[in-house]
Amino acid sequence: MKLTVHRSGCRGHANHGWLKTWHTFSFASYYNPDRMHFGALRVLNDDIIEAGMGFGTHPHDNMEIITIVLSGELEHRDSMGNGSVIRPGEVQVMSAGTGIQHSEFNHSAENEASLLQIWVFPDKKNVEPRYGQAKFPEEEMNGKWRTVVSPDGVDHSLWIHQQAWFSHGEFGSESEVSYELKKPGNGVYLFLISGEIEIGSETLNQRDGLCLEQIDSPVSMKITQPSKILVMEIPV
To answer: Domain 138-234: which topology?
Structure first.
């Protein structure tokens, strides 16, 4: 198994005042030829939006967009007529397909919002745009993996146009856990939202990322501090 660590501190970073953002892969003014994407995973942005601020209406096409709110509230509106507020424990997906426009704002006038925005290359282009949003109770992630995104909506997960599975887990310290591929040949990008874990000889801390390729057995990890983990299994 091939492991490549992306430390939190080596990500691209921009502070726009109303927005503080960290880019795992090349995005906007951050360009790193060694960090263009990981297989079908194109963007992993870690954003903090100030109260009452946000992204005005802008377009997307031919991309699967997944938003995971970590704290606060994110208000969404789009050209398909959707309007909603996304809160912690909820996940949003959009298939941009032939083209959409949307806006995202911090719904709170007092508190900042923290979120992950993730882009995945689709396995088919120019599909009809679509929107999905779902809440996943914390107990479904406590001590186990909960699939939140999949190609087929298994177990009431949200679905996207790609052979990709996103799983979220929350684990106590001094425990061991493993992740088994849904599709042989896929790679895994593991993002440690919080905590500390060990995989092989590597120790990951909050907001570190890990690329795993050439996986031929379940990925085993030791939880050394209470941890929240997002596993993105994607074609590489």
So the answer is: Jelly Rolls (2.60.120)
Please, how many CA atoms are within 13 Å of residue 166, restricted to the half-sphere of its CB? 29
Give the three-state DSSP class for 41.
Answer: strand
Q: What is the pLDDT along the chain (236 residues), one digit of tens a residue?
A: 999 999 999 999 999 999 999 999 999 999 999 999 999 999 999 999 999 999 999 999 999 999 999 999 999 999 999 999 999 999 999 999 999 999 999 999 999 999 999 999 999 999 999 999 999 999 999 999 999 999 999 999 999 999 999 999 999 998 999 999 999 999 999 999 999 999 999 999 999 999 999 999 999 999 999 999 999 999 99
CATH number of 12-135: 2.60.120.10
Token pair, residue 54, equals 């946000």
φ, ψ of residue 124 in degrees (nearest 5): -150, 140
Whether this prediction's pTM lies above 0.70 is answered by yes
